[in-house]
Amino acid sequence: MNAKKTSKGAALNLSLGGKRNEALLSAIRQIWETARLQVTRSVNSALVQANWLIGKQIVLAEQGGRARAAYNRQLLKTISGVLEKDYGTGFSVSSLQYMRAFFIAYPSLLEIQHSSRVESGLRVSSRKQHALRVNSQETVETVWSPGRLHPGLAWTHYRTLLKVDRHDVRDFYEIEAVRSGWSARQLERQINSLLFFRLMKSRDKKGLLSLANKGQQILKPVDAIKDPYVLEFLDLPESHQLVESKIEEALLSRLQEFLLELGSGFAFIGRQRRITLEGDHFYPDLVFYHTRLKCYVIVDLKVKKLTHADIGQMQLYVHYYDREIAAQNDNPTLGLILCTEKNNALVRYILDKNNRQIFASNYKIHLPSEEELSKELSREIHLLGNFRARGRTL
Fold first, then answer.
1. Where is 66: in which H helix or E strand?
2. Are 344 and 377 in contact (CB under 8 A)?
3. pLDDT tens digits for 272-309?
C-alpha cells in the first residue's frame, strides 16, 4: 500500500513540475542515449581494429609460405578450426578471408594507432584516441580521410565496402556513409543501386575526380540530380500497370527510403499542394525544400514517356513558386520530372540553353545492372557530343 502511495506521489510531483520536469527528462534521455551510442561505437571500433589486425597476421603468415595457394587454404582451415573451438562462431574460413581482404584493402586503417603498438592489446594513447573521435562535420573534413578508421563505421559497413572493387568508387561510398550516417543496410542499398555511376552522368572529368575524392558535393542544382532514380523499395509492378497517384502514395508510405534516394538536403513539404490561377487549379505531385541549395524543389511523376506538355506544366509550377511562394532570400525553385522514358533533344529544345531550374530524369522500379547503366551513360555521352559538335551548349 505504501509503495503504491509513493508511486502515485512521484507521478503527481512529476506532473506538477510541468515544463521544468519535461526539460529534465529530456536532458537525462539525451545523456543516456549519447552514452549508449558511444559505448556501441567503442565496441564496433574495437571489433574493426581486431579484425584488421587478425587480417594483418594472416597476410604476414602467408608471405612466409612456400606453396602459397595450397598453404593459404590449409592455413585458414587450420586456424579456423582452433579458433572456433576456443571462441565459438565468428572465425569461419569465410570470416577469416574477409579479415584478410580487409587488411589488404585498407593497409593504412590503423596507421595512427600503429605507432602506439595497437597490436599489443589494442591499447591506444588517450591523445591519439581523441584524434580518431569524429564528432562534427568539421572534424570529418579535416582529420578523417577514406581508408582510415572511423568510429561511425562498423564491421558490417567495412564488409559491405569490400564488395566494391574500384578503389576510387569505394572511397566515394565510404565518405558518403560517414557523412550521411548510413546504416550498413543503407550503404549496401546505395552500392547495389550503383549510386556512384548514376551521379557520374551529370559530371565532367573534374567533377568525377571530386566525386571520388570528396563525395557528393552539392554546390549547384545539377549536383543534386541523379539519372536514373531507383525506386525498387516500393515493390511495385511494371510501370505500364501503374497510375501516378499509386506511385505517389507508395512514395509517401516509404518516405524515409525516398528521401535517402533523393539524397541529403531534401526536406518534405507536402503533396498535391494546390495552385489556383483565375479559377483553374493545379496540383504539383510532391514539394520539397532543399536545405543546402536553399530553394523549393517540385517533383512531378509521369508513368509514360516525357512530353512537351509535361515540361510546360513544370515551368508553370516553378515560375509560380518563384513569384508567389519563395522567400526573398530563397534561390530559384527547381523542378524535377520523373518519367519512365525521356527525350533529351525535346528537353534541350524546349528549355533555354542556360536552363538551371528544370530537370528530367528516368526512374526505374528495379535495380539496374552496371551493364545497363553503362550503356545508358555511353548513349548520353554520345548524344551530348553530337549536340556540342553543332555549336550548342547545354
1. none
2. no
3. 999 999 889 999 999 999 999 999 999 999 988 899 99
| Global pTM value | 0.73
Distance of alpha carbon 215 from alpha carbon 217, whole angstroms = 6
Q: Which of 320, 323, 313 is nearest to 360 (CA)?
A: 313
Long-range contacts (CB closer than 8 Å, 24 or more residues apart) made by 17-23 = none
**The CATH fold of domain 223-389:** Trna Endonuclease; Chain: A, domain 1 (3.40.1350)
CA 174, CA 164: separation in Å to the nearest integer?
10
Q: What is the pLDDT of residues 246-263, one digit of tens each?
A: 888 889 889 989 999 999
Residues 6+ apart with CB under 8 A from 104: 55, 59
H or E segment and range at residue 357: none
Q: Buried b / exposed e across 195-234, counting CB within 10 Å, b at 16+?
A: bbebbbbbeeeeeeebbbeebbebeebebbbbbbbbbbbb
User: In angstroms, rounded to a whole number, what is the distance separating the alpha carbons of residues 242 and 246?
Assistant: 7
Instruction: Give the list of residues 6+ apart from residue 64 with CB closer than 8 angstroms, or none.
Output: none
pLDDT digits (tens, 9 = 90+) for 132-161: 444 444 444 457 889 999 988 999 999 999
Of residues 355 and 164, more confidence is placed in 164
CA 41/CA 144 separation, integer angstroms: 16
Strands annotated E in the chain: 229-230, 266-271, 275-277, 280-282, 286-290, 295-301, 334-339, 358-364
Q: Cβ distance 318 to 298 under 8 Å? A: yes
Domain boundaries defined on the chain: 19-192, 223-389
Facing residues of 335 across strands?
A: 298, 358
First to last CA, the chain: 80
